[in-house]
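Problem statement: downstream parser choked on a complex file, so we are re-checking the raw output for the iron/sulfur cluster run. The parser issue turned out to be on our end (a line-ending mismatch), but while we're here, posting the original submission so the record is complete.
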Amino acid sequence: MQPTSPNFKQNARDAIADDPLQAALAKLAVGFPMRRLEAAARLPEFEDLRDQARDIKNHVLENLDHYLEAYEKKVIDSGGHVHWCRDAKEARETILDICRKADAKTVTKSKSMISEEIAVNAYLEENGIEPVETDLGEYIIQLRKEPPSHIIAPAIHLSKEQVADTFRNSHIDLAADRDLEEPRALLEEARARLREKFLGADVGLTGANMLIAETGTNVLVTNEGNADLTNNLPRVHVVIASIEKIVPTLEDASTILRVLARSATGQDISVYTTFCTGPRRPEDLDGPEEYHVVLLDNGRSEMIGSEFHEMLRCIRCGACLNHCPIYKSVGGHAYGWVYSGPMGAVLIPNLIGMEEAQHLPNASTLCGKCESVCPMRIPLPKMLRKWRERQFKAEMGSSTARWALRSWAWLAKRPALYRWTMTAGVALLSQFGGRGRFKSLPLAGGWTSKRDLAAPAGDTFINQYHKGARGDQSGALMRKKVH
Amino acid sequence: MAAREEILDRLRAKLGHSDALNGENPALKHIEDHHKNLIPKRGSLDKAQRVDLFVQEATRVNATVVRVGSFDDVPDQVSAYLREHQLPAKIKIAPHHSLKSLDWQQKTSLMVDEGRGKGDDGVSVSVAYGGVAETGTLVMSSGPQTPTSLNFLPLDHIVVLEADRIAGDYEAVWERLRAQFGPGKLPRTVNWITGPSRTADIEQTLLLGAHGPQRLHILIVDPSES
Ligand code: SF4
């Protein structure tokens, strides 16, 4: 899609005025973090598993060339094909070519961020092939011609009334006065629609949560089962995945799976975790006859060894979005491209360039919550600061921002003074706001004219942390692990 | 090929690797060793406790579980399930030797069809490769006797699982698959299934039966039950 990231400020303003979006975000802000905490509490080894997941991916990235070759060999051994693509254009053309050779009219798709990144749907449509998103959320936003607003909950920004309207406008062969009041009715209608598509599709296009080098396998994680009908029923299965999705072994994949769903939805494991290896075997009764992997670089190899190297550990769980005060205020669309939240703010400038995405690294309070919940322990705030530094050097920020940043840097190098200033600032703010949110603040008009600033609950995080005064479970959990 | 070489060359340059993949390197060694990482303790139990944990976890994610003493009890259980949910007396079974050898006609008045899944299948019965107690997960492995489509197309999925094949953790099932298929090889599809299909995509409301089965019913065959 064409990025609207340069309009972040306007996008954010619109988002804050969007009532259904604000209602959805309020719900998300409670639900996902709470379920994640419960899942983590049920697994005493959770924090240690996060360390191991991080180490596995670090090892992969240090040996990525070798792992890619080993993986490729296994795909070929199991009867599949690997197509290496430098950029989005090559990947789109490769997919179209596979579809043409298969004489495809309809392509079913299961949710894939990479397919959004390369905008393959529009390209297939232009070339006379119908792409059908099958994840319920993706299906809804495809009908509305919108990008996803959350990695794992792409239609999170919509109310059920908006979904009902979308279905009425799209499924025009059905009775106009049918009852679409309840979410269940909407699901039934989508299920019936998509069932026909699943059964009639010529090609199934899926993403991959991981690629396993040991066996040449792609891993698919869903709760709906749509990825399974997509990869199993059509004659051709195409996997689109970026090069950093590699993990070495089945054991390593299992370790990462133990932290993925817990971080994403707070489930111990998603309903369906699927391991596909090559095409169907000669004796099999079902499964695709052809298996293709489109292996995409699109800027990743440039990130290796750079300041943003660690971003390549990301498993797209969405936890950093669910815990981000900015994401929870403006939702995903404000970021203006397919990724959003802290991970998007780091990744988007890497993929589409700093000029296009210059506001995004500033769309953060650097509160550190994202890093504290990231299963892969990616230092997102550090990388956001790197972007800001680069911007600062390139003189791209506004003069006020540069001034603020310089002052902040001066303070930050003096920890005692920094802490004092922050504490004093909080004490002062408490006078203004009591508890809750500020509508306006002296000297901060640039911020509060666009959004409310959360009133400090009386003390800084660092102070509370040291006093052990944080009442919530996350503080307790973190303290236990840090000390 | 140009893209492949360009991507690999760039990675090699960044990583300081001189050469293409060859005999001795950390990646191949890591794959060959495929050592186990940290395995959560909650699955390391004796057999009876493992089965109990499996039942507890599967039930927590909305599966229903019944324990039976032998495969011979399966037809009766399937009939009972269909009656309970007022479903037509018609099933599609996997062409698995342990299901085909059952005396369906003698015991029940079901219409029994076998083969891969079709769009109009209402209820399927298949056989699991194994189970994982840690999360109440079924492991299904594709093959001539176990077509994958039966796991996803019907609205009701009944799975027969032998108690002996319930492992504590995922790693134990990988070991078994490796022993059977050889190192570095897997069947076309391995499915981990943990509860029936669901979605929360509409206003974050949890609904069962999104694209896959709305109900998952597990029959654990445990001779120590009888
Ligand atoms: S950066 Fe971390 S928390 Fe955010 S999506 Fe990636 S893995 Fe998840």
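For whoever reads this later: Chain B has a mean pLDDT of 94.
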